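Annotated sample (chain length 247).
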Amino acid sequence: MGTRSSPVSSLARRLLLRDAFLVAGAALIVRLGVVGWAANRIPPVADGYYYDVIARRIARGLGYTWAWPDGTVTYAAHYPIGYPAFVGALYHLLSETTWIAMAGNALLGALGVFAIHRIASRGGDRRISLCAAASVAVHPGLVTYTPALMTEGVTAALVSVAMWLGIRASEHPTLLRWSAAGTLVGATTYVRPQSIALAVLIPLALVLVDRRREAMRSALRATAIVTLTSAVCLAPWVTLKIESPVP
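Output written by the structure step:
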């Protein structure tokens, strides 16, 4: 899209990449430490309770349904499908224990830290990159929220990754790179529906640093690709809901 990072030597790039893995690893250790403490102390509460129940039903092959006290089972639409489907997949593959979901949150949080470092490292300054990533790695709100079966921290991580992929695509524009960003936007939308706005916001935000006419045209093309890819990702669930509406 015309946006290009400052020239960075091969050695500097390797050091920056190493830093990204190190700070993401530190973020994961911190979050898993909190998970280890909270696993037997903090049960799913509030929205987390419903996420957990729906995830267990998904893990058992019962779909996104709800069992009522009178024994009736109906389709559910309590919350977006993304997070309970993610947790349900973990429960199905590993174990129906809440610490598994908490660990999944920790992994996504660490991935978000990695993405933040990669975004901040575009200028080649190691200190700025480390400070930016470290501030997210040890952010009290994000760290302490890890054991909660909630979507706020997960959404923050997914948005960070989507933004990182968008920046990569803007620097070396290809259909595959923009489609990857669109896929992340679609995945994030499954978790938080309002995230679909990122399909437009990411390309337009990136073009703000390059106001040339060519950049604007590239931004419009990128918006179209990201939006279309996101729509393809969301189409199966939308189609299913049309065919099997919630009573």
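Annotation: The first strand starts at residue 65 and ends at 67.
Annotation: The radius of gyration is 20 Å.
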